[in-house]
Amino acid sequence: MRSLKNYTVVLRPDSNGTFVAYVPAIIGCHAWGQTTEEAQAELVQVFEMIRDEYKEAGKELPEDVEVAVTHAR
Fold first, then answer.
1. Of 12, 15, 31, 32, whose CB is crowded by the most CB atoms within 10 A?
2. Has residue 63 been placed in a domain?
C-alpha cells in the first residue's frame, strides 16, 4: 500500500491567512492549518483515513499525478 511519501503534496497559502495542503491525485485528500506545519500534520491524518477506507474497500490508491505550475507569485 502506498504512503503519503509516494504522492505530490501541494502546500499553498489561503486567502484567510491559513494554509492548505492537498494531494492532487486523491479526491478529498486535503487539510488546512494556521501554519504550514499544522496543515501538513493534518494532511497526514486525512491521508491515513482515506488509505484505510481504500484498504477496507479492497481498492488500490490512485497513481500520483504530475502537477504543473501555471502561475506563481
1. 31
2. no
Q: How many C-beta atoms lie closer than 10 Å to residue 7's C-beta?
A: 20
39 HSE (CA, 13 A, CB side)? 21
Structural domain includes residue 73: no
Three cell numbers written together for 38: 499544522
pLDDT band at 72 (very low <50, low <70, confident <90, very high): low
Q: Would you call 20 exposed, middle or buried from its count of C-beta atoms within 10 A (0-12, 13-18, 19+)?
A: middle
**Residue 38 lies in domain:** 4-56
Q: Which residue type occupies 35?
A: T
As a 3-state breakdown, the chain gives helix, strand, coil percent values, each rounded to 5, of 35, 15, 50
Q: Please tell me the predicted confidence (pLDDT) of residue 70.
A: 81
Residue 19 lies in a domain: yes
What pLDDT, on the 0 to 100 scale, is given for residue 73? Answer: 62
